[in-house]
Amino acid sequence: MNVRKTTLGLAAGAALVFSLTSATDSERYFEIAKNLDIFATLFKEVNTYYVDEVPPSKLVKTGIDAMLKSLDPYTNYIPEDDIEDFRTMTTGQYGGIGAIVVKRSGKTVVQTAYEGFPAQKAGLLPGDEILSINGVTVEKKNNSDISKLLKGQANSTVKLMVTRYGQEQPIEVNITRDKIQVDNVPYFGMITNDIGYLQLSGFTVDASREVRNAVTKLKEQGAKKIVFDLRDNPGGLLNEAVNISNLFVDKGLDIVSTKGKVTEWNKTYKALDAPLDTQIPMAVITSGRSASASEIVAGVIQDYDRAVVVGERTFGKGLVQATRPLSYNSQLKVTTAKYYIPSGRCIQEIDYSHRAEDGTLGKVPDSLRTAFKTRAGRLVYDGGGVAPDVEVKDKEVADITRVLLQKNYLFDFATRYRAEHQSIPPARDFKLSDAEYQKFTQWVQAKDISYSTPAEKALASLTAQTKEEKHYEDVKAELDAIRKKVTTNKANDLTRFKPEIRELLEQEIVSRYYFQKGQIEATFNDDPNILAAVQLLNDQPRYATLLKPGGKAASAMKSAGTPGKQ
């Protein structure tokens, strides 16, 4: 073998690869420069010759937003004006009054006043309609404008003029703003004598400290088992997900790995601290809106067989974002990596790098999902969120209930109820009497509660089809009879779906007296996910079996759970 020829051949090959790489980079940089030049000259021409005045910042932001939207929903441009809102999302802190205010049918209505915060302390009530803020009329203001008017430096005062049910004249409410810290754990408490419950709603700064505190307090109150509720949690800070996972698994174990284009940023996050508790039985509840950091926690706990996951398949967001500074105090939030949980799976469901010709995106089909194993050997799958071990589907609400919610009739009746009743029994004990429910039905029947049931839609479609095929006169009598029957049944929907409607109405009323914590407690006896979790924790043989290979967990099936909602 000619060593010299071989060496020269390798050198020539390396030079060719280098040359090709350099050429590829040069071509890429040229393409970038070329297209930026086209954009700049195009914008200049539009700005000069377009028939109407063009706001430069608005037009450029529209272009940037459209460009980033073609990548994924999580890569965003954050202009200087929105930086404060972005900080609020990541820290959970802002200067304000501690209330949720929404526009509704042209009115500015207080939806929630959080317990212990300035708005509630000053006497602002859910259902109050705000007329002005510091003398500024809000009738034509949008939600963003109103939020900016309400927020401000701690210890500054904001004056609201509001109208309230039961009061003839507008009243003035003066609120001293404060530093608002949104709790990541809005509630923890005991469901039964030995089962504790905690709800985690976000992953901002200090989320792990709040979870540690909640679990510690629950154990002090006698908790021997825990229900950990991650439903509808959209995620947040990666390091908080790592720290929360660390509370329940041994020190030194892998929590999550990130892998992206910039290999220097790839990292494996480990449990660095001694755990809080690796033994207490837990049921983790998830929903189709549990995403990102909440999926890391649920996935880590599942991969280490630390707890049983109950509920729905999670959203399926396995992407990591980082913020990069831009000029003029703006920022870019950009997707930099995918994350992988301890079993080795990535739970990302949608492939944003491959779009169909029409721009639509596809999910990973069941046939392409790869099987992985938990530490105990249980089968789990990638490409579609974290599937629960015990599947519990959310209850589908009736059409009448949906209308009552969408039109805020439950909310408005609760406002009336609060004005007419000074107090109610504790949250878990409060029940609306039949007479009170009858009063609600009489009140709501004077409202617009029109809607089309599936039966009515099907009947309308059938009627149109028979007319088109010239058979309508032959079946008109039968269709009319069915229509009359359906209409009669629909008129009784307030009675037929009384248990469902009453349950939601009770929760809304309870929130007016016992705030968010009371509203959560009011669900303990009715929530199918909580009931399933409690039943499981009280059945330790079944709990133990589910954490072993072949335990018939839903997560061992590719199609388990409800697909992530997009």
UniProtKB/TrEMBL annotation:
Pfam families: PDZ_2, Peptidase_S41. Keywords: Hydrolase, Protease, Serine protease, Signal. InterPro entries: ClpP/crotonase-like_dom_sf (IPR029045), PDZ (IPR001478), PDZ_sf (IPR036034), Peptidase_S41A (IPR004447), Tail-specific_protease (IPR005151). One of its GO terms (biological process) is signal transduction. GO terms for cellular component: outer membrane-bounded periplasmic space. One of its GO terms (molecular function) is endopeptidase activity. Residues 1-23 form the signal peptide. Residues 86-151 form the PDZ domain. Belongs to the peptidase S41A family. PANTHER family: CARBOXY-TERMINAL PROCESSING PROTEASE CTPA, TAIL-SPECIFIC PROTEASE. This is Peptidase S41. It comes from Solirubrum puertoriconensis.
